[in-house]
Amino acid sequence: MRLMASVGINMVLGWEPGGFDERLLAAAQANGISVILPFDLKPEWDYADLDLRQDVMTQITAWVTRYQRHPSIVMWGVGNEVTLEMDDAQRRAFAQFYVEAFELVRALDPSRPVTLREAEDVLAPYLAEALGRRQGVWRDPPTPTITPEEEPTDAATALAPPPGQQVVVAPRGFVTASTSTPTASDRHSTIGWPTQTWTCRCLSPSTRRPA
Questions:
Q1: Distance CA 130, CA 65 (A)
Q2: How confident is the model over 149-187, as pLDDT tens digits?
């Protein structure tokens, strides 16, 4: 950690939770390095299985409870590239599970964002629907009909949601998630909001204190 800090590294993240324990967090804190703490979600798990979901929720609760007082943690990294090989039904089941997991972590620790890392944006529409249904604001979108004469000049014009709707942002587009106007607190806690997922400025460990 000292060597990492000496060359200007100020944050570490990983995929294997086994290496991210109290020893690593103490070393990070001592050297002014922030940590995104990983929790592994296996792609081969059946997220439609209610017993499995409950077991994973119990594990997540124990994980957050164990580590949440460590000031070097700036984000909870729940899952990494889980859905790339999944089919439609599996992604839908995972998205439903993930919204519940997201809400659980936020309830246990409202002070830190939750991030899910995916190599592609294929999961964004599934998360948007799961979140919208959870909040009771989801509306199944109508099938657009655009004639060649009406075809817009760019994708943003074609996909732009009505004014005032909250969106879940992916690297190459967005999908409607809510009809409510987002507030500053929404931007901190909503899945996929760009200031959280793509441009979150990590806090220095020295600025975070145990609850």
A1: 26
A2: 554 444 444 444 444 443 343 333 333 333 344 454 444
pLDDT at 60: 98
63 within 8 A of 106, measured Cβ to Cβ = no
Other C-beta atoms lying within 10 Å of the C-beta of residue 90:
19
Cα-trace Rg, the chain: 19
* Whether 25 contacts 73, CB under 8 Å: yes
pTM here is: 0.68
- DSSP letter string, the chain: -HHHHHTT--EEE-S-GGG-SHHHHHHHHHTT-EEEEEE---TTS-TT-HHHHHHHHHHHHHHHHHHTT-TTEEEEEEEES-STT--HHHHHHHHHHHHHHHHHHHHH-TTS-EEEE-SSSTTHHHHHHHHHHHHT---PPPPP---GGG--SSHHHHHPPPTT-EEEEETTEEEEEESSPP-HHHHHHSTT-HHHHTSPPPPPGGG----
Q: Whole-angstrom Cα distance, residue 97 to residue 32?
A: 34
Closest CA to 98 of 168, 202, 33: 168
- Cα–Cα distance, 182 to 30 (Å, whole number): 37
